[in-house]
Request: fold
Amino acid sequence: MPKDNITPRGDNYSQWYLDIVSQADLAESSEVRGCMVIKPLGYAIWENIQSGLDRRIKATGHSNAYFPLFIPMSLLQREAQHVEGFAPEVAVVTHGGGEPLAEPLAVRPTSEAIIGCSFAKWVHSWRDLPLLINQWANVVRWEMRTRPFLRTTEFLWQEGHTAHATEAEAEEETLKILNEVYADFSEREMAVPVLRGRKTDREKFAGALRTYAIEAMMQDGRALQAGTSHNLGQNFARAFGIKYQTVDNLEEYAWTTSWGVSTRLVGALIMAHSDDEGLVCPPRLAPIQVVVVPIYKGEAERATVLEAVDRVVASWGGRFRVKVDDRDQMTPGFKFNEWEVKGVPVRVEVGPRDVAKGTAAVARRDKPGREGKQFVGQDVLADHIAALLEEIHNSMFERAVRFRDDHTVDVADYGELVEAVKTGFARAPWAGTGADEERIQNETKATIRVIPFDQPGKAGRCVATGAETDQVAIFGRSY
Amino acid sequence: MPKDNITPRGDNYSQWYLDIVSQADLAESSEVRGCMVIKPLGYAIWENIQSGLDRRIKATGHSNAYFPLFIPMSLLQREAQHVEGFAPEVAVVTHGGGEPLAEPLAVRPTSEAIIGCSFAKWVHSWRDLPLLINQWANVVRWEMRTRPFLRTTEFLWQEGHTAHATEAEAEEETLKILNEVYADFSEREMAVPVLRGRKTDREKFAGALRTYAIEAMMQDGRALQAGTSHNLGQNFARAFGIKYQTVDNLEEYAWTTSWGVSTRLVGALIMAHSDDEGLVCPPRLAPIQVVVVPIYKGEAERATVLEAVDRVVASWGGRFRVKVDDRDQMTPGFKFNEWEVKGVPVRVEVGPRDVAKGTAAVARRDKPGREGKQFVGQDVLADHIAALLEEIHNSMFERAVRFRDDHTVDVADYGELVEAVKTGFARAPWAGTGADEERIQNETKATIRVIPFDQPGKAGRCVATGAETDQVAIFGRSY
Reply:
């Protein structure tokens, strides 16, 4: 049903997003400029995201560890490009325990510098490599314009940091994380399809050799960078002295990588799937996958229906994350509305007639109204729900793929690019420079999101320079 | 076997602790004064602690959420006792994004102030209560003398924050957390027995009505406060405006609580159980519960033994957290030593004769040497290990209880107290004041750890004032 307090996407996409965050009770602003409070439902989604990522990060051989929140300014300054990129965004602690500090401390904007110091102590020989570490932490970047989840001064993330004996191994790690961890998680758990590719030099991480990214399309056609993986070359190893003895007893600098995703993924999840009725949560990450609403009038019906509900839910034996909404003071309509706004994938209704017939009504969140409602026998309900959750995931993913494909245009020249990025992505032949990218951004607000791995082989004339090229780039406006 | 690089407990307990932390590779110092790096094994123990606590926190009805790292100084100052307690320990951010801030921000030393602001927005009616929130976060307290895990400038913790309609409900919550979450976790998962009780006014949390704590005894007889739970009364509700409308339409301040445990528990775990050979990790929290060491000479034996090891471990089907140490370049003796230092509860050795006989040798970490070694048939190995892990937990717990009882003296007068706290706890009749506590601390370094819930009913003459009293207090030197 339409919601008074949610601006339709078509009217104002940006306000719609803020309305979803607020009405679904995911987050709110705080007393601190640019910092948000992540409320229980928003945090429960993040916990499920953490769990899916952590499993993949450990399965690919990484161990979690924890490094200090503070980084002495002198350390941050060791890698020249790194400090140039991050110094303007840093929050600085100048006093501790009532005294001015001898050296100011940066609140970590990312941890290459402090982790680099540890790696220099941990790595001595080729036997110590690869060193595969991940950290779950909060970081702070002083942002001017913030939006809940998408861009906040403090955010939560994981940051992987690894060291390797060769450039090839560092490159392999960088790509493995992008493909086996980030893209796999995004598509298989968030139901958000992503383009994979390399960032241009203009867009890469401060201090990296190469940055790879996954990019998703939101429902307004804009891009959201959902994860990045950096091959840092030997830049940080040189700056922090991460050296090892090779098999042949030579001293070499290690090759390092870093990679991260953040609470921004919650924003991606919201913007990729939700509708004008509220949040639509992908089933594998939904804190509540199934809400059961008993329907009754009066005490006798109440007892009969609740007894049936208890019996049915008990028979599922923890197969799903279930909430039985047996609040007495609210009507079923109020409850339907609340769980719709909060994005619960499957709603089960049980009334007295269902009890008599041994059935239940099952409604799916991603297809509102009659279209998504079915009556199902209680004896087969668990299997039905399990299959339905799978179907909802696949349907959400396919819809998002279709939307992206429908909003991606192969452009032949700059005029077509200008048009295409108004509503989505432009796939454009590209042989330009950073200066060309900057000019295009100034004129169209679009940037190169990635040079995709998936290349057509033959492209055409570069939209900036007119030179023949075999390479395409994906242009889009971004969050 | 004795370790060259671990100082025996009897020689220097404090150095022994540092040696265990370093030799078991749990943590190390960092470039930032008072902040440690938690290394993978230390962090894996913390992850298991988190998991056991989080399960209990959710089972008692609490939801996780996340609040900002920064607290505007003016907010921290709203509750008078609170700021008095924490202001001297605060790290202060004065610059952000290259500019001085209009108002300095405290890095949270605890989150009552910032969470109080949110609670004031979230609570309107009695229907919104109880409000049961928990946060996993890092906090910073500027400490002068630090020790890994036990006292560090930055540490990791959970902090629960709840609001209730009545004092009785807040009190019930405070005690439920102490008993059902903290004490239950400590005893059932850490195998660390704890005394439960109330803190004196002198020792309570800054701004609390009453503070309860669990206190454990370390192997040097000193106390370690392992968790605290505070009934905050209406102090914070008044300071932050957490008001609700009662059933009778009256406006009332809510009653709030807060409670926390931290990475200090890792220190408690180490100091309660470990020995001169290294870490002894309680089985339920051990990142590796069973290490399997294949024993062979030459290629043919190697193939036979590894095939058997793979088959046996596969047959356990994920029942334990297992590591097969099949590193070729190390001797079995080297491996035994490494896993002994790192505290793995059970070691399984499989050699060619074991393969021929269908057996394995099983050694337990908590009883080193011949005493703890058994030969077990491979067909019953899984059940044997499962039972052994239980037995190890129980044995570690009982040993710790025995140690505490052996080092706790019922004292009749001050002279006996002075002696008793040199080696352990004194259980003393108590009717003194804060000034009496201070004097005793100055003279003996011992403080009242708790007024225990477990009271004898009839005590004797107060060790400070000589007045007849029915109450005993537990005195001890503490970490």
Remarks:
- Chain A touches chain B through 53 residues (CB under 8 Å).
- The two ends of chain A are 29 Å apart (CA to CA).
- Chain A has 14 helices and 25 strands.
